[in-house]
Amino acid sequence: MRDVFAVAIATTDELDTLLGKSTYWKMMRICAWIMRFIHNIRSRKIGRLKGPLTTEETDKVRLFWVKRVQTRAAADKHY
What distance in Å separates the CA atoms of residue 38 and residue 27, rounded to the nearest whole number? Predict the structure, then answer.
């Protein structure tokens, strides 16, 4: 019985919280900066990204969110 109710509860994570507290574009820029930070940590000094965010970086974030929403929607049995 407890397992049935656990499935019915919607789960949220930090990214959902971020989306709820910020505007769409601000959230996109925050996520792009986070992804750049992760990229720069994993890269050597020569391959690090600098300067303002690029269109490609924001497009990657948008694609990330689209895939995330599609995956969550596909997991929903009412989809």
Answer: 17
- Render pLDDT for 12-53 as a digit per residue (tens, 0 to 9): 667 677 777 888 888 899 999 999 999 999 999 888 999 999
Residue 64 domain-assigned (yes or no): yes
Q: Which two tokens stand for residue 67?
A: 């895939």
- Count of domains for the chain: 1
Nearest alpha carbon to residue 48 among 56, 58, 37: 37
Residue range(s) defining the domain that contains residue 39: 24-79
Instruction: Give the C-alpha separation, 57 to 13, whole Å.
Output: 23
